[in-house]
Write a structure and sequence with these properties.
Elements (H helix, E strand, L loop, with lengths): L1 H31 L11 H10 L2 H22 L8 H57 L6 H31 L8 E4 H15 L5 E7 L5 E4 L1 H18 L4 E9 L5 E7 L17 H7 L9 H11 L3 E7 L3 E8 L7
Parallel strand pairs: 2-4
Antiparallel strand pairs: 1-3, 4-5, 5-7, 6-7
Amino acid sequence: MQFSGTARTLGSRLLLVGLAALTLLIVVPDYLSGSEISFSIFYVVPVSLAAWRIGWRAGVLISVLSTALWFTADRLTHEAYSHTLVPYWNALVRLGFFLTITYVLAALRAARAMQEELSQFVVHDLRSPAAAIGAAVAALSRDADGLGERPRSLLGVVGASAKRINTLIGALLDLSRLESGKMPVRMAEISIPELLAPAREHVELWQGLHPITFNAEVSEGVSTVYADPDLTQRVLINLVSNALQHAPTHTAVTVSVARDDAGDVVFGVTDHGPGIPTRWLSRVFNKFEQVEARRDGAAVGTGVGLAFCKMAVQAQGGRIWVESQPEQSTTFSFSLPAGPPAA
């Protein structure tokens, strides 16, 4: 934790130095162009970046630096003003403008950080009752011998739903960790059947009320993959859950595993649902982007699970993509290395 805090501090200092250097670069064309061409708007760039990326102190510092450099360039290139106080008044107005931008952006940054922190607390508090529901359903299922087939099926669906809730909660909690690079990634060689087992189990739990067949198509010669077992299983469960939501009854969700031309292992999850409109294919992995897609009538989820999948795959050095044929099928695919990198 101390190391990550030191790294963030060093990164902020380097960014501040870079923004100061950018401000110095802006003053060069400002000075060379004289008073005919205004470069004042370009000073807003380092001011805005400092306030948004680092904080209000950095924004104030860059605001003062930008004002001083602008004032110097103006005094060296501008002809005499009607009054000696005019350039100083202009400098104060410019400083006030920069500080206003700093205040607004820093306030937005703080509000966003507080909102994310509150969301993390709420989501974290939801994990315990969701886990308790799953445990209670599991206990009831073990003692369900005297129940009929229908109640047992309902218990299976409730258990699958509880697991789905826990999966989404985990994805929400880990999104920010993946975005900031704080999520531990433990790469190891793992067998393909071991990776697919939780996804198969997830489908089987749904079969009571939503008859869907699980197909696993593993190419010959593909027995292991180099991956983080927990992250990869969660990616597969998220993709299979997404497929289950849109697959018509009495169809199949197919998980395929093959090797591509580069030697990487490619996983594909295919359903035969309504598909995704072409205009949304490049945006379905963006966080919360699917909220807009759903308003547009696209068959997608909340935008949390797929955003997690993208970041989890990229954290392992892989890539993820989607292909869809409207009213026919949708396939989410991701690739992972077949083995550790050569020394």
